[in-house]
Design a protein that fits this description.
The structure is a single chain. The protein has helices at 53-58, 68-73, 77-83, 86-90, 104-107, 134-144, 163-182, 201-211, 230-243, 258-266, 276-281, 314-318, 321-327, 332-358, 362-374, 381-389, 397-422, and strands at 9-16, 23-29, 33-36, 38-41, 63-67, 95-99, 112-114, 119-122, 129-132, 148-150, 190-192, 194-195, 219-221, 250-252, 271-274, 285-288, 291-294. By secondary structure, it is of the alpha/beta class. The strands form five sheets. A five-stranded parallel β-sheet has the order 4-15-14-13-12. Helix 3 packs parallel to helix 6, helix 8 (201-211) runs parallel beside helix 9 (230-243) and helix 10 (258-266) packs parallel to helix 14 (332-358). The termini are far apart.
């Protein structure tokens, strides 16, 4: 059967947690299969800072993200078309997702004016003006050739209240129809609408209902992870996944902290992206289950361990914390080595969650992860509440502290036995 007769995106739920809303799935795209839940590293301008495409393949990265706004400015539609799309231009054979440029309405607000027609940007590179309309956003994304594209949405700061939130939500719905009409490559690329509505539950529900009337292959949840309280954040995610269809992938935009990923998988999200892993690498920080190791700190000067003994990335196989401390932030190669590890960490975390879901052991995975991640520190109330909403109960702090005390005593006894044996 010709590939043209097969939709450019199919999605199948392969396993579901019997307790929470977590699920594992298989998304089949034109360029690769993608196992979900999945974390997508961000290559804003067609490259991940510090990592080559071949290195991403070695990490078994199945899909990455590019930025429509930036790629539309540089290299531009003409170059992308001449190159045959972003896959060929950057030498990446696997799947790509592109955002629409809508987020720049917030991040570059001082350079943008928003009206019903679209967003009028002033280029940060040469100060020239550019009108990004829903049609133009799709035109750029068609030239990029991404497997999954985002509609242009009207994005407001997450802390915005009042009529502007409803206006943005309604405009987002109108704009998705313009995006669908402008989409010229539906046989190759899939367009996701974006759920907006700020921190207003009825608006989120209205937006989901309206978007579900459109013939689309997946949905994104936008307008979160931008400064709102974590209490509001998880509730909006929960509301959206309660109403989105089971048989289509759900993408939560801009989320990448490990604890957030675990909680949002429990809430039923399938796809994530964030610049965090590579950005924090540029500051000399490595991701581990307990949080971050700031390798610039003097305590790592003589530490000859790898970043993470359980990690099989090339950085952990070859280099010590001491060496990475020596070069952290001082040499360009340190950004590359730490970025490789941090992306590997995110991908391994997602793989572990998929395996736990498939074995119906996800609740226990969550308990174990949170114990490692927070250690002796209290687990934030919002995490407890979010997990409880999907039937995962974390142990009370008193019980957690008791376990830590027992663990510490066992360690001290083992040290005493070891010292006695060597004396």
């Amino acid at each position: 059967m010709s590939s043209r007769n097969i939709p450019p995106l199919t999605y199948k739920v392969v396993a579901e947690c019997s307790v929470s809303k977590a699920r594992a799935g298989l998304m089949t795209l034109r360029h690769s299969e993608v196992n979900t839940p999945v974390f997508m590293p961000v290559g804003t301008q067609g490259t991940l800072k510090g990592i080559l495409p071949d290195q991403l393949i070695e990490l078994n990265c199945q899909i990455l993200l590019g930025n429509t706004y930036h790629l539309g400015l540089r290299p531009g539609i003409g170059t992308l078309r001449l190159a045959g799309g972003l896959h060929k231009f950057m030498g990446w054979p696997r799947a790509i997702l592109t955002d629409s440029g809508g987020f720049q309405m917030v991040s570059l607000l001082q350079l943008a004016e928003i009206n019903e027609k679209g967003v009028n940007f002033r280029s940060p590179f040469d100060n020239s003006e550019c009108m990004l309309t829903p049609e133009h956003s799709i035109q750029i994304q068609n030239a990029i050739g991404a497997d999954i594209m985002m509609q242009l949405d009207d994005v407001v700061k997450t802390t915005t209240t009042g009529p502007r939130v409803e206006e943005a939500m309604e405009r987002t719905i109108r704009w998705v129809d313009r995006c669908i009409e402008a989409h010229a490559r539906d046989d190759d690329q899939s367009l996701f609408p974006i759920v907006q509505g700020g921190l207003d539950v009825p608006l989120r529900q209205r937006c989901v209902s309206a978007l579900m009337e459109r013939q689309v292959r997946g949905f994104a949840v936008g307008g979160l992870s931008g400064g709102e309280s974590k209490h509001d954040f998880w509730r909006m995610v929960d509301v959206c996944t309660d109403h989105l269809p089971r048989d289509k992938p759900r993408y939560l935009m801009g989320v990448g902290f490990a604890a957030d990923l675990v909680v949002c998988v429990a809430l039923g999200i399938d796809m994530f992206d964030c610049v965090f892993p590579t950005r924090t690498a540029r500051f000399g920080c490595a991701l581990v289950d307990s949080g971050q190791l700031n390798l610039k700190q003097p305590k790592y000067k003589l530490d000859l361990q790898p970043i993470d003994k359980q990690c099989e990335c090339s950085t952990c196989k070859r280099y010590t914390r001491s060496y990475l401390h020596h070069i952290a932030t001082n040499e360009n190669v340190s950004c590359s080595l730490l970025s490789i590890h941090n992306v590997a960490y995110q991908l391994r975390l997602m793989r572990s969650m998929r395996e736990a879901i498939q074995h119906d052991e996800f609740p226990q995975f969550v308990l174990d992860f949170m114990a490692r991640h927070f250690g002796k520190d209290p687990i934030p109330t919002w995490i407890r509440e979010a997990l409880k909403a999907v039937n995962i109960e974390l142990p009370p702090e008193e019980e957690k502290q008791e376990k830590e005390t027992i663990k510490q005593k066992k360690h001290e006894q083992a040290v005493e036995v070891s010292q006695a044996a060597s004396s």
